[in-house]
Design a protein that fits this description.
Length: 495
């Protein structure tokens, strides 16, 4: 009997020792690795391994321990057509767990190994091997989802289109997305993202469409953004605060919007090199100085909006070079001088707003109602014999001291440049009350009415990424007239 008891004790001790050694071995084992198939896109070839476990401190991804165990336990019971779909499953499941609110149940069917059937997920043949089906696009536009982007999204290495506009995603854009070398269209507009400009977008060699509108991005704009071969750059309605980089002249973009940020300084003279430019919007910033003469080289521009800034001086004569312009908005600045006939007779001009400035003269063709149906607005200037103008006492300090743009640094003056926005001279006369214009909120990209997103009508398995969507034609918000109209200026000779 005693021998049996001793044998049992020895067996128990042996089992405990084996269990402890297994636990130690498991704790220190290296993470399992999934081989990442080489992908060729253009001239770039990726050939590397991507582990399931990622470490944030090294700009990679680390699943929480419980989440990792759960993922490993569930994957062996599922069958995948190839390893890339398996990695996409891991990424999408991590994303689903990072969603706090999904009112339309958009991700409710994100269950099982058939990731190509998930709502908002689109598959196509791989670009490097058309025998492989891969996740090529994600479209969750207008789904009203709240959550954040987990770093595991970097596992979907064949992703070319990423559209999540008009949701409630927050946080930052993960650096792990730098692995998405095929990214072609990236639209995260109308969300709640924060932090610096997402420089991960600068690492995507194939990117054509970048839309960061209506978020809370802040800080400076990297000059490298204009070195990329982008067709559309939407930056408006964020918190960017810097000068506009001089590299803008290198950009091949057709549409660029800086509107409603805190950009300062001049419009770079290199802007004249943007031969592909169709629309550019500067409205609602703190830009100053005279307009550079190089603006006149933008003969393909249809929309030029520099309203609601601090521009000064007279309009450059080269402005007549905007042969294609349809909408020209220079309102709400500190511009002076005479609005000449050739500006108002541009061949394709439909709307010209130069209200809320200090112009003291305009050609007959610029007067509203005398231009064959074109929409002109000359209100709140210093124009004699015109209604709704500034009081003479408000006009005098500015009109009597016009800025010499030939010496202004923003227009390339050779004498070192004057201050872009000089202070008007002090007068002993009482300062008249200045009516404040009611500035309307931006009208583009309003929060949509909730509706269940449906899959777009594009082919399910395109050979190549879809073409860049044509951005909507910009319509500058029309300023409202102040409730209390200022008194008419007295009939005085121009000082």
């Amino acid at each position: 009997m005693e021998i049996c008891i001793e044998l049992v004790k020895l067996t128990v001790d042996f089992v405990a020792a084996v269990a402890e050694s297994i636990e130690v071995a498991f704790r220190h084992r290296p993470p399992p690795v999934i081989q990442y198939s080489p992908v060729m896109y253009g001239r770039r070839i990726l050939d590397e391994s991507w582990p399931i476990i990622f470490d944030p401190s090294s700009n990679s991804m680390q699943l929480p321990k419980q989440q990792l165990i759960s993922s490993i336990k569930s994957i062996p019971n599922l069958k995948f057509e190839n390893d890339r779909l398996k990695r996409a499953y891991i990424a999408l499941q991590a994303w689903k767990k990072a969603i706090y609110s999904d009112p339309f149940k958009t991700t409710a069917n994100w269950v099982g190994s058939d990731v190509c059937s998930y709502n908002g997920v689109y598959c196509a043949p791989a670009l490097d091997d058309d025998s492989l089906t891969v996740v090529a696009g994600v479209d969750l536009n207008h789904a009203d989802i709240a959550g954040h982007l987990p770093p595991e999204l970097g596992l979907i290495t064949d992703l070319a289109l990423f559209h999540i506009n008009s949701n409630r995603f927050c946080g930052i854009i993960p650096k792990s997305l730098s692995k998405l070398a095929l990214m072609y269209e990236f639209d995260v507009s109308n969300n709640r993202f924060v932090g610096q400009f997402p420089e991960v977008s600068l690492s995507w060699p194939s990117l054509k469409f970048l839309d960061l509108r209506y978020n809370e991005f802040e800080g400076s704009l990297p000059s490298e953004i204009f070195d990329k071969d982008l067709d559309a750059i939407f930056l408006n309605n964020n918190r960017f605060e810097s000068v506009i980089p001089g590299t803008i002249g290198k950009s091949k973009a057709s549409v660029v919007t800086f509107a409603n940020n805190k950009f300062i300084g001049c419009i770079p003279k290199s802007i004249g090199n943007m031969k592909n430019l169709n629309e550019i919007v500067f409205t609602g910033n703190n830009l100053t100085g005279c307009f550079p003469n190089e603006i006149g080289l933008l003969n393909n521009v249809t929309v030029f909006d520099a309203s609601k800034n601090g521009f000064v001086g007279s309009l450059p004569t080269t402005l007549s070079g905007l042969a294609s312009v349809e909408q020209l908005d220079l309102s709400h600045n500190k511009l002076t001088g005479f609005v000449v006939d050739k500006f108002c007779k541009l061949p394709n001009l439909e709307s010209f707003k130069f209200s809320y400035n200090f112009f003291n003269g305009e050609a007959e063709s610029c007067i509203p109602g005398r231009n064959n149906g074109k929409q002109f607005d000359d209100t709140n200037n210093c124009l004699q014999n015109r209604p709704s103008q500034k009081p003479a006492k408000q006009c005098l300090p500015v009109v009597s001291r016009p800025v010499d743009c030939s010496k202004d640094k923003c227009s390339g003056g050779s004498n070192g440049g004057s201050s872009p926005s000089p202070n008007p001279p002090r007068t002993s006369e009482p300062k008249p009350s200045k009516p404040e214009p009611v500035v309307p909120k931006p009208s583009e990209s309003p929060k949509p009415e909730p509706q269940k997103p449906s899959k777009p009508q594009t082919p399910k398995t395109p050979e190549q990424p879809s073409p860049i969507p044509q951005p909507p034609k910009h319509e500058s918000p029309k300023p409202e007239e102040p409730e209390n109209k200022p008194e008419l200026p007295k009939q005085e000779e121009s000082p």
